[in-house]
């Protein structure tokens, strides 16, 4: 490998790391039936909002919380894959 290619790869590696770090601290929201979950890109839940109507039906509340959490995880993973695929496009690696 020549020096120019090594520099490009080092720059790409630094950009990937910076993107990963930024995504880890980004807040993502998942929602379902009156429940809103805010989750960091690191999958740490930082906030949950529950509609008062759900407090009367425990089973519905549990289902809504699970659905909102799963939705938030889906949003985090989809966004992370889209951001990271920018670095692997054209390199034959595909998405993460």
Describe the overall structure.
- The chain is α+β, with helices and mostly antiparallel strands and 96 residues long.
- The chain has 2 helices and 3 strands.
- The protein has helices at residues 3-25, 58-88; strands spanning 27-32, 35-40, 45-50.
- A 3-stranded antiparallel β-sheet has the order 1-2-3.
- The longest helix is centred in the C-terminal third of the chain and has 31 residues, at 58-88.
- Binds to DNA and alters its conformation. May be involved in regulation of gene expression, nucleoid organization and DNA protection.
- InterPro entries: YbaB-like_sf (IPR036894), YbaB/EbfC (IPR004401).
